[in-house]
Amino acid sequence: MEKKEKFERWVKEGKIIKEQIKKIKHRIVVFSGKGGVGKTTVSVNLSYGLVMRGFATGILDADITGPNVPKMVGVSKSPKVDKYKLMIPVKKDGLYVISIGMLITEDTPIIWRGPLRSKAISQFLRDVNWGELDFLIADLPPGTGDEVLTIAQRMEPDLAVVVTTPQEVSVLDCRRAIALAKKMKTRYIGVIENMSGLRCPKCGAEIEIFGSGGGMKLAGEMGVGFLGKIPIEVATRKSSDEGKPIVLSNKDSDVSKAIFLIIDKIVTMFY
After folding, report:
1. Which of 32, 55, 144, 232 is the most buried (most CB within 10 A)?
2. Quick count: other Cβ atoms within 10 Å of Cβ 175?
3. Residue 255's closest CA among 240, 235, 225?
4. What's the CA gap between 251 and 49, in Å, rounded?
5. Residues whose CB falls within 8 Å of the CB of residue 144, separated by 6 or more in sequence, listed in order
6. 239 has a pLDDT exceeding 80
7. Which residues pair with 232 in a beta bridge?
8. Average of pLDDT values for 55-62?
9. Which of 75, 57, 186, 60 is nearest to 127 (CA)?
């Protein structure tokens, strides 16, 4: 009986979430097979890039134990609640933002087991008034655990963006992320190779710190799209620390140019 009740609650919650997000035209999840590949930086800059292209865009920080989106976009205030007791995303530089990091202090550890983290993600879809958006990007936690599965099921994304670095250890883990997206029958799946080369500030030569071509090779072998390469720039790290993503602070940088090329590919998928 208990299992039946849990299943019924799960189905009911799914219907509520579907109703809540029906005004969002396109839903994108950004994830990776492992941490440390710059997934959140990519998510944030893709989101702002879409805003700069004129699209109404929101970002959902679904990395419950490592919510870095507020820091990267420069948001410190908590979301307000409307008359229906739904959270209203905080708007920063045109982007609508929701993160558990906006509801807790910076030094508060989130020591939750998988089911609690998954429940929190469901709440960000169910209890948030996203309104009418062209795009909603969800920055997922690394790996293919409960939280990733939850949001893939609940959000029903149109596009899964898998972020990897060129090195083999990252590419290997990202295979699992692509396999998960395929199992969820995601309409589009695309790979981004992040940290792909560093331009020497003195001579201009490109230094392949983590190798090169791993992302494109992965996409080819797995039969999915390759969205592009994003190089390493010190300015990207600085701008993230200062809460001003690189596409806003320097739209002419190498990273920004690469981001906009990727955004153009994403937009052509839907328009």
Report:
1. 32
2. 15
3. 235
4. 9
5. 31, 33, 176, 177, 180
6. yes
7. 198
8. 94
9. 60
